[in-house]
């Protein structure tokens, strides 16, 4: 069971809702993923044009926790304002803090992320900051009261997988709060790697929405999360540089 703040989840897969080829495919993929948490940019919400299609309208929202994110924010003020908008709209008290100040890498602004996290924790939100794979910043975030840490595997939408497994491991080993690897996941193998490192979960979007068959990929991601978690719980064998026969020698004829 995954616990973040006061929320508990069976599934360890968080799914983004952007860029699916259609709402119908999105719905089928969400179902196939087994996710309980859907994230979306508050700025995509159609608050003022109720007659326009809503990207969440095909989904039975009673089945999912919504994790609004502050995507589009470039400053602390913007992130905090977007979080307030999410709360005023009656969405979940969870907020994914995303403050991006670089359009090429889409890497998070570490100082603004920390500042926004402090403010929103103080205001009673359940705060999940999207951060780089920097273990020192991760520590400052949980010291500031973040309820989970979401380090990127690689740049958003890049599908590059985990570029720095060592730093992610440092974060996972030290963090007193859940660590969700967020962004850059390209394939089920990346997901399994994250979970085998000991991550508490993964958040992904593009790898599913951009797949040739998003529904099949969503199912594959679900199984990869489960397989990786099980493998981590089971404890892998140590790597050796020499071969060791897998059959025991005892009882063998010479
Ligand atoms: C949907 C969302 O929150 C993204 O910003 C997230 O980081 C996912 O990234 P990928 O699309 O690389 O999976």
From TrEMBL:
<dbReference type="GO" id="GO:1990107">
    <property type="term" value="F:thiazole synthase activity"/>
</dbReference>
<comment type="similarity">
    <text>Belongs to the ThiG family.</text>
</comment>
<feature type="binding site">
    <location>
        <begin position="205"/>
        <end position="206"/>
    </location>
    <ligand>
        <name>1-deoxy-D-xylulose 5-phosphate</name>
    </ligand>
</feature>
<dbReference type="GO" id="GO:0005737">
    <property type="term" value="C:cytoplasm"/>
</dbReference>
<feature type="domain" description="Thiazole synthase ThiG">
    <location>
        <begin position="3"/>
        <end position="248"/>
    </location>
</feature>
<feature type="binding site">
    <location>
        <position position="157"/>
    </location>
    <ligand>
        <name>1-deoxy-D-xylulose 5-phosphate</name>
    </ligand>
</feature>
<keyword id="KW-0704">Schiff base</keyword>
<feature type="active site" description="Schiff-base intermediate with DXP">
    <location>
        <position position="96"/>
    </location>
</feature>
<keyword id="KW-0784">Thiamine biosynthesis</keyword>
<feature type="binding site">
    <location>
        <begin position="183"/>
        <end position="184"/>
    </location>
    <ligand>
        <name>1-deoxy-D-xylulose 5-phosphate</name>
    </ligand>
</feature>
<dbReference type="InterPro" id="IPR008867">
    <property type="entry name" value="ThiG"/>
</dbReference>
<dbReference type="GO" id="GO:0009229">
    <property type="term" value="P:thiamine diphosphate biosynthetic process"/>
</dbReference>
<comment type="pathway">
    <text>Cofactor biosynthesis; thiamine diphosphate biosynthesis.</text>
</comment>
<dbReference type="InterPro" id="IPR033983">
    <property type="entry name" value="Thiazole_synthase_ThiG"/>
</dbReference>
<comment type="subunit">
    <text>Homotetramer. Forms heterodimers with either ThiH or ThiS.</text>
</comment>
<keyword id="KW-0963">Cytoplasm</keyword>
<keyword id="KW-0808">Transferase</keyword>
<dbReference type="Pfam" id="PF05690">
    <property type="entry name" value="ThiG"/>
</dbReference>
<dbReference type="InterPro" id="IPR013785">
    <property type="entry name" value="Aldolase_TIM"/>
</dbReference>
<protein>
    <recommendedName>
        <fullName>Thiazole synthase</fullName>
        <ecNumber>2.8.1.10</ecNumber>
    </recommendedName>
</protein>
<comment type="function">
    <text>Catalyzes the rearrangement of 1-deoxy-D-xylulose 5-phosphate (DXP) to produce the thiazole phosphate moiety of thiamine. Sulfur is provided by the thiocarboxylate moiety of the carrier protein ThiS. In vitro, sulfur can be provided by H(2)S.</text>
</comment>
